[in-house]
Amino acid sequence: MAKILSQDEIDALLSTVTSSEPEQTDEPARSEHVRSVITYDFKHPNRVSKDQLRTLENMHDNFAGHIGSTLSTMLRTMVDVDLISVDQINYSEYIMSLVSPSSTYTFSAAPLEGLCVIDYSPTLVFAFIDRMFGGGEKVLEIERELTNIERSIMGKIAGRIFGDLENSWKNMVPVTIEQKSFETNPQFVQVVPASETVIVVSLQLKLFNITGLLTICYPYVSLESVLGKLSAQNWIDATKRKSQEENRANNQENLQKVTVEVALNLARTTLKMKDFLNLKIGDVISTETKIDAPVEMLVGGRKKYMCRPGLFGKRRAGQITEIYPIIEKE
Questions:
Q1: What is the dihedral of CA 66, 71, 77, 81, to 10 degrees?
Q2: Which DSSP state fits 5?
Q3: Percent helix / strand / coil, the chain, rounded to 5
Q4: pLDDT attached to residue 228
Q5: How far apart are CA 40 and CA 49, in angstroms?
Q6: For position 234, what pLDDT does the model report?
């Protein structure tokens, strides 16, 4: 026979359910609070802000376009270059990611301090060299160090890429890049301590059906002095300034082809209207201009220079003695 609960037992059950409801309400709040905590890794400190990394990304995105054009011209075929990432890691992690034997160059970029690193994957290097000597689309699976001749060819390619890297930096911080060394073993490339923070720019290059990576490593100590200039606002201002300079250069080039009328005002005087109306052939008009005094040169009907009239060979000419302001004061 089923047991029938008394009123006291029913009230006790209801009070238990009511008291347990706040605990269920608080649980999601506590879990959300736990999820908002971000773990900080002291071995990988973020010493460069996201805004500065974004500026470096924009700079090297332009760099990718430049070296794509440069390599396409040198290798006489299309080379696609894409920016893969701009990462902030330890120098030891970067060195461990490089293969051996490698084609690694160290370079200085004054006024940046210290040395930076640029590395080409072996697949790309041998594809470049093979194409320079007339090769085709064959993928070369070669794992060896470069010969002296191959190193010379690769040095010319690296020099052109260094020039493009200078052009990418000039709008933000003008740098002068100079190659310092070439290494085939990444373990011998020690430009900063292993635990130092570095910025690694990874670019993917595609030649025919061959794909490889080009990486550039900037130590934090090298970028520290210019980090204040690596902001989104400075990037926008530099882009506008570059556009204005290009427009100015184009306008100057176009204006050089425009022809203007040049005339010399030998003398100037004032006459009364009745004297002007009574002028006849043979009359002499006197002026206050001396024979050896400089005269006005008009360019497009406006006074621009003072000059001395004379002859240049068999042509009439004027030797400029004084330059007037572009805007004359009335």
A1: -50
A2: P
A3: 40, 25, 35
A4: 81
A5: 15
A6: 64
- Cα–Cα distance measured from residue 116 to residue 98, given in angstroms and rounded to the nearest whole number: 15
Residues 6 or more apart in contact with residue 279 via CB below 8 angstroms: 285
Boundaries of CATH 3.40.1550.10 in the chain?
A: 50-247
Contact (Cβ atoms closer than 8 angstroms) between residue 127 and residue 210? yes
Say if CB 273 and CB 238 are below 8 A apart.
no
The parts of the chain modelled with pLDDT lower than 70 are 1-5, 17-45, 139, 232-244, 326-330
Q: Report the b/e string of 151-164 with b at 16+ CB within 10 A.
A: bebbeebbeebbeb
Q: Where in the chain is CATH 2.30.330.10?
A: 262-323
Tell me how far CA of residue 90 lies from CA of 160, 161, 204, 237, 275, in angstroms. 28, 25, 21, 32, 93
- Is domain 50-247 classified as CATH 2.20.25.10? no
Rounded Cα distance, 282 and 272, in Å: 18
Tokens at residue 166, please?
A: 């200078």
Continuous H helices in 98-231: 122-132, 148-169, 220-223
Whether 231 and 52 have beta carbons less than 8 Å apart is answered as yes
102-130 residue pLDDT tens: 999 999 999 998 999 999 999 899 999 98
pLDDT on residue 156: 93
Residue with tokens 């890297």: 165
Q: Tell whether domain 262-323 is in CATH 2.30.330.10.
A: yes
| Element spanning 27, H or E | helix 7-35
d(CA 103, CA 184): 5
Token duo for residue 119: 């590395």
Q: Any long-range contacts for 26-29 (C-beta under 8 Å, 24+ apart)?
A: none
What is the distance between the alpha carbons of residues 230 and 237, in angstroms, rounded to a whole number? 11
For residue 329, the model assigns a pLDDT of: 47
